Amino acid sequence: MKILAFAASLRKGSFNRKFIAQAVEVFRASPGVSVDHADYREFEMPIYDGDLEESSGIPKGGQEFIRRIQAADALVISTPEYNGGIPGTLKNAIDWASRVDPIPFDGKPILLIGASPGGLGAVRSLWHTRVPLEAIGAFVYPEMFGLSRAHQAFDDKGNFVDAENRAHLEELIQSYLKFVGERGAGA
């Protein structure tokens, strides 16, 4: 089973980059799982514009995003919360990817996680991110993990300070992998 994993954040020191790195470790320790750990900068693209699409097609970053989704059996996305919602860069990438037929997200199982320094742990962004993904046919796994107080959650090497966070993430990922396997992904 191949998992595409990325943090929907451009900032090098992003809490979501640290969070996805922890998730990637768990996925890679799981038998039969390979991980494509992408850097979100690989998917840079202009704001969606129908005129630009008509004149130039899907931009290079969007094409790469689509290719990597198509090559994966499932995805895990760690998303920040910007002003109570989905980051514009993630929504934009989803919009560009939805312009091909078939839509690469269609039928893909997606696990959403998110980190925020606030007390809600990016849960508003997680719920907002579900909406466009489900609208274009993705199956967003019902359970999500919002990591609150992310500015205190990691040590200097990017590892969890609290073992309970690691245990929760491991349990969630194992449950998600079981679900993806039952759906026949990677078979």
Summarize the structure.
The protein is α/β, with parallel strands linked by helices and 187 residues long. The chain has helices at residues 15-28, 50-56, 60-71, 88-97, 123-135, 163-182; strands at 2-7, 34-37, 74-78, 109-115, 139-140, 145-147. The protein has six helices and six strands, in the order βαβααβαβαββα.
Q: Outline the biggest β-sheet.
A: 6 strands, parallel
CATH classification, class level: Alpha Beta
CATH topology: Rossmann fold
Structural class designation = alpha/beta
Describe the 3D structure.
This protein is α/β, with parallel strands linked by helices and 187 residues long. It has one domain (2-182): 3-Layer(aba) Sandwich (Rossmann fold), CATH 3.40.50.360. 41% of the residues lie in helices and 14% in strands. It is built from 6 helices and 6 strands, in the order βαβααβαβαββα. Strands 1, 2, 3, 4, 5 and 6 form a 6-stranded parallel sheet that branches. Helix 1 crosses helix 6.
Attribute tags:
globular, alpha/beta, six-stranded parallel sheet, Rossmann fold, 187 residues, 6 helices
Topology:
Layout: E1 2-7, H1 15-28, E2 34-37, H2 50-56, H3 60-71, E3 74-78, H4 88-97, E4 109-115, H5 123-135, E5 139-140, E6 145-147, H6 163-182
Parallel strand pairs: 1-2, 1-3, 3-4, 4-5, 4-6
Helix pairs in contact: 1-6
